[in-house]
């Protein structure tokens, strides 16, 4: 289980709606933290996520998926958002057997 940052550059509203539904379906936790960025927690490999999401894109639209590893820091998010981040990283860490816990903090 990993946390991924998904950034998309979508131009079409129908594409955007199907893309959003696909993100929700392939993750066990997601947060649309700002246009055009999502954080998702998923057991899928980044290539699998790309394949599923790219199926919704038009030829001139873009997609970037980055794995968040072990360390995360943030600032300026409200309490609900900060709690989502802490919980997502904690649960992703717990799902990794035999690995060190991630470091996360609000600064």
Q: Any overview of this molecule?
A:
By secondary structure, the protein is an alpha+beta fold. It contains 3 helices and 6 strands; from the N terminus they run βαββαββαβ. The strands form 2 sheets. A 4-stranded antiparallel β-sheet has the order 2-3-1-4. The two termini are 25 Å apart. This is SinR family protein. It comes from Methylovirgula ligni.
Which sequence of SSEs, written as H and E, runs from N to C? EHEEHEEHE
Terminal Cα span: 25 Å
Gyration radius, in Å: 14 Å
| CATH topology category name | Alpha-Beta Plaits
The proportion of residues forming helix, as a percent range, comes to 25-40%
Arithmetic mean pLDDT: 84
Largest sheet features: 4 strands, antiparallel
Strand order of the largest sheet: 2-3-1-4
Oligomer: single chain
The poorly predicted ranges are 100-107
